[in-house]
Write a structure and sequence with these properties.
- The chain is α+β, with helices and mostly antiparallel strands and about 375 residues long.
- Helix content is about 25%, strand content about 30%.
- The protein has 8 helices and 20 strands.
- Bound molecules: flavin-adenine dinucleotide.
- The site of flavin-adenine dinucleotide has 36 residues, from α1, β3, β13 and β18.
């Protein structure tokens, strides 16, 4: 006989794992189903590091960060794990460029303080950077690194500890609406759930298609690399901030970004939203040599002392929406089913916030932030 639960969460990346934890700690009956083994490296949430920050090009994300920081603090307090390292963050741009301009107006709108640094001041504080003459920076102290894989593992541990039912190697192969409930079939079990949260990352396109929702999403395989530093001490988190260089085509106009040494013995950096278009099931995990070469050149120009050798490189998936904003919505005609997609390469920091919004949506409670910007219906050409 099928097991009955209140909430079924599909997908154990940072969003689904956060949802399972938040529901379990409220004493709700929740199942989290993951198609692969937990902590696998085929999705978007694994690895050493993700940037978290307030500095954003749109005030809505600053508002979400205002909720995200305390939520992560609660998770850290409950688990005792060191999930976050504050390093400060610097946004780099041409003087008067759109990237810093938009961040300033979002931060001003949300009363978050920051410092505008000219090139000389950047050089004084962070001599590691070799910047073009026409560059400036926006420094915001409340930024840093989330230890990605440990965050996801911790969320799952806490979800279990609070009574959640977690199953890996449990690919959901069929979901059928049965009255107000959902019958969820995996390879090994059948569940009946009152509420459904779909958090399937780069697999969301096909999942949504089954519900008649056809969103213009693209999955890209993004390239990252760790670079050896001449003097590692100069690039440790107490000396060197997370950084973002604006001017690219990616979400928030971000072109390129990087981290202090953390997790591996090198400075991690990557281009943003420049990966080749693929699908979650057909991506090849191959390192893109051309992109690596370009990344190396960028490091040689901007961070010459952290560009000796590439010591490690790999790939990871983005699921991109056309406007690079998230999609958080209900499944049409099914008020008890909600979904998240369109991470566009910047959702990790908001994992618990997105999960909370999904829970508010499915429970028909007032969302913490206005969800209009994340509506699936903004893509007019789609059937929703
Ligand atoms: C290289 C890289 C760098 C990034 N840097 C940052 C950063 O600095 N800051 C930041 O905030 N964000 C960053 N991101 C983005 C962030 O990591 C992602 O937005 C986030 O991890 C997405 O999480 P998710 O839970 O939506 O998806 P995923 O982590 O992909 O999880 C979805 C899960 O659903 C499972 N699933 C799918 N279909 C099924 C099914 N049928 N049955 C059961 N399970 C299923 C999948 O196996 C997967 O485990 C980065 C991403 C990459 C790739």
């Amino acid at each position: 006989m099928a097991e009955k639960i209140e909430y079924c969460v599909v997908g154990a990346g940072v969003v689904g794992s956060s949802a399972a934890y938040l529901l379990a700690r409220e004493g709700k009956s929740v199942a989290l189903l993951e198609q692969f083994e937990f902590a696998h490296d085929r999705g978007s949430s694994h690895g050493e590091s993700r940037i978290t920050r307030y500095a954003y090009d749109h005030p809505l994300y600053v508002r979400m960060a205002k909720r995200g920081f305390p939520l992560w603090s609660e998770i850290i307090a409950e688990s005792g794990e060191e999930l976050y390292i504050q390093t400060g963050g610097i946004d780099l741009d041409e003087i008067g460029g759109k990237g810093i301009r938009d961040c300033r107006s979002s931060l001003d709108a949300e009363n978050i303080s920051y410092e505008l640094l000219d090139r000389a001041e950047i050089k004084k504080r962070f001599p590691q950077f070799e910047l073009p003459n026409n560059y400036e920076g926006l420094y915001q102290a409340d930024a840093g690194i989330l230890n990605a894989s440990l965050c996801v593992k911790t969320l799952q541990t806490l979800a279990r500890k609070n009574g959640g039912h977690l199953a890996d190697k449990a690919a959901v192969i069929k979901i059928e609406a049965e009255g107000d409930e959902f019958a969820i079939t995996t390879k090994t079990q059948k569940l009946i759930a009152k509420k459904l949260l779909l958090c399937a990352g780069s697999w969301m396109g096909p999942v949504l298609h089954g519900w008649g929702v056809d969103l213009p999403l693209t999955v890209t395989q993004e390239q990252w690399a760790f670079f050896e530093a001449k003097d590692s001490a100069a690039f440790m988190p107490n000396k060197f901030p997370i950084f973002i260089e604006h001017g690219g085509e990616g979400s928030g106009g971000i072109g390129w970004y990087g981290f202090p040494i953390f997790g591996r013995n090198g400075v991690k950096s990557a281009f943003h939203q420049t990966g080749k278009v693929t699908t979650a099931d057909t991506r090849d995990f191959e390192v893109d040599e051309k992109q690596l070469h370009e990344l190396h050149e960028r490091m040689q120009k901007f961070l010459p002392d952290a560009s000796t050798n590439i010591i490690h490189a790999g790939t990871c998936l983005y699921t991109n929406s056309p406007d690079t904003h998230f999609v958080i919505d209900r499944i049409p005609d099914h008020n008890n089913a909600v979904f998240f997609t369109g991470c566009s390469g910047h959702a990790f920091k908001f994992g618990p916030v997105i999960a909370e919004l999904l829970i508010q949506l499915v429970d028909r409670k007032q969302p913490t932030v206005d969800l209009k910007m994340f509506s699936a219906r903004r893509f007019s050409a789609i059937k929703v």
